[in-house]
């Protein structure tokens, strides 16, 4: 295979079309006039609207039937083979799992390696009950970060933690702000799913995992029949979450709608069609405790009030811009239902706050920081 030369190579153990952060990085690189090669999981090209001759995606066709560890091994093996044919000026490892591939590209082309530490990988919620795997992943990250030139994190609290772990590495903050994608036609959930005219649409968007507050919203539905819960996304927790909804009775289960995955460039219309956005995270690990999820800012950009967990980074946002309510993650379902109704009844007032906050919560406001990484 001939050598593929590019300005930036983005490596990710994910699909770009449903990964807001990668999507925005790639679009920014292209807007800056840089050529971009991506190494990612298999995707639909139609879901990647980067109409640019400088964009060249490479997809790794990895079996969806394997468990995560086998899929990761296959991803690294296939990616390392591809790395032999890529020469880049900059390499962005968009997660810890991409570091071996990114390092190889860095070494063969003397590229600048940027590591996007989008989570506290030494304290993942998914590995809370698997300490051996967590220790291995922590050691894996420590080994590969040695050759990294710059680290990116998603917030100030993350920078403190990562700075203690890797004190000699420069760290930049790029928050999970949404890009200025226009809302053209908000989804009419009542028409699409034949819901009652007075229904109240609660939205969760993102990966379907446990400890993301999805079960807690479901449990609140039984206290008011007007509440409907739309879940936009997919993930390994889907079947468990569906069974969880059945535990609260058929009446509740019928009001939980699994809408499936939506490409990122279409997501804003789905967000804007809801009445309330949910960003409830349980602080079971340090990674979750310090979370500042992109859905928080996407809801704000779409002009809908938000119910979110009272965690340090999230609380700091609401102290400046009260466009919703922060609650105790252990709130009782009946109290949660009451707060959801209060948010709905006063959503016009909260929407005024979203207009003010949305001016700051824009990916485009961070482009200068990204430019400074590419030197």
Protein model, in words:
The chain has 375 residues and is α/β, with parallel strands linked by helices. It is 41% helix and 18% strand. It is built from 16 helices and 13 strands. It has helices at 20-31, 68-83, 99-109, 131-145, 156-165, 189-192, 214-220, 238-247, 250-253, 264-272, 286-289, 294-302, 312-320, 333-345, 347-358, 367-373; strands at 4-11, 36-41, 55-60, 86-93, 112-116, 150-153, 171-173, 200-205, 227-232, 256-260, 276-279, 306-309, 324-327. The strands form 2 sheets. Strands 3-2-1-4-5-6-7 form a 7-stranded parallel β-sheet, with helices on both faces. α2 (68-83) packs parallel to α3, α10 packs across α12 and α12 packs across α15. The two termini are 29 Å apart. The mean pLDDT is 90.
Summarize the structure.
The chain has 375 residues and is of the alpha/beta class. It has helices at 20-31, 68-83, 99-109, 131-145, 156-165, 189-192, 214-220, 238-247, 250-253, 264-272, 286-289, 294-302, 312-320, 333-345, 347-358, 367-373; strands at residues 4-11, 36-41, 55-60, 86-93, 112-116, 150-153, 171-173, 200-205, 227-232, 256-260, 276-279, 306-309, 324-327.
What secondary-structure arrangement, pairings included, does this model have?
Layout: E1 4-11, H1 20-31, E2 36-41, E3 55-60, H2 68-83, E4 86-93, H3 99-109, E5 112-116, H4 131-145, E6 150-153, H5 156-165, E7 171-173, H6 189-192, E8 200-205, H7 214-220, E9 227-232, H8 238-247, H9 250-253, E10 256-260, H10 264-272, E11 276-279, H11 286-289, H12 294-302, E12 306-309, H13 312-320, E13 324-327, H14 333-345, H15 347-358, H16 367-373
Parallel strand pairs: 1-2, 1-4, 2-3, 4-5, 5-6, 6-7, 8-9, 8-11, 9-10, 11-12, 12-13
């Amino acid at each position: 295979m001939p050598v593929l030369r590019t300005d930036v190579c983005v490596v990710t153990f994910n699909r770009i079309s449903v990964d807001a952060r990668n999507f925005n990085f790639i679009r920014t690189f292209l807007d800056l006039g840089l050529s971009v090669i991506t190494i990612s999981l298999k995707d639909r090209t139609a879901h990647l609207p980067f109409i640019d001759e400088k964009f060249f995606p490479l997809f790794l066709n990895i079996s969806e039937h394997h468990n995560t560890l086998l899929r990761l091994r296959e991803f690294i093996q296939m990616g390392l083979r591809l790395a032999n044919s890529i020469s880049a000026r900059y390499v962005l490892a968009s997660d810890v799992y991409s570091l071996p591939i990114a390092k190889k590209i860095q070494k063969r082309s003397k590229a600048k390696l940027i590591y996007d530490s989008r989570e506290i990988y030494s304290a993942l919620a998914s590995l809370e009950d698997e300490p051996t795997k967590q220790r291995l992943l922590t050691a894996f990250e420590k080994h590969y970060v040695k050759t990294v030139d710059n680290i990116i994190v998603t917030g100030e609290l993350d920078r403190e933690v990562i700075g203690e772990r890797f004190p000699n590495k420069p760290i930049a903050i790029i928050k999970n702000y949404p890009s200025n994608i226009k809302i053209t036609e908000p989804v009419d959930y009542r028409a699409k799913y034949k819901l009652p005219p007075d229904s109240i649409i609660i939205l969760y968007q993102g990966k379907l995992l446990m400890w993301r507050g999805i079960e807690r919203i479901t449990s609140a539905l039984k206290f008011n029949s007007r509440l409907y819960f739309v879940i936009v996304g997919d993930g390994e927790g889907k079947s468990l979450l569906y069974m969880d909804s059945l535990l609260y009775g058929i009446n509740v289960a019928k009001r939980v709608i699994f809408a499936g995955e939506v490409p990122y460039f279409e997501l804003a219309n789905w967000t804007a069609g809801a009445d309330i956005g949910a960003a409830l995270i349980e602080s079971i690990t340090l990674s979750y405790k310090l979370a500042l999820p992109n859905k928080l800012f996407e809801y704000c950009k779409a002009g809908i009030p938000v119910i979110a967990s009272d965690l340090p980074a999230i609380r700091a946002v609401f102290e400046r811009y009260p466009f919703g309510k922060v609650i105790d993650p252990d709130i009782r379902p009946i109290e949660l239902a009451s707060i959801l109704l209060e948010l709905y009844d006063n959503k016009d007032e909260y929407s005024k706050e979203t207009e003010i906050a949305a001016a700051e919560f824009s990916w485009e406001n961070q482009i200068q920081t990204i430019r400074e990484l590419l030197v």
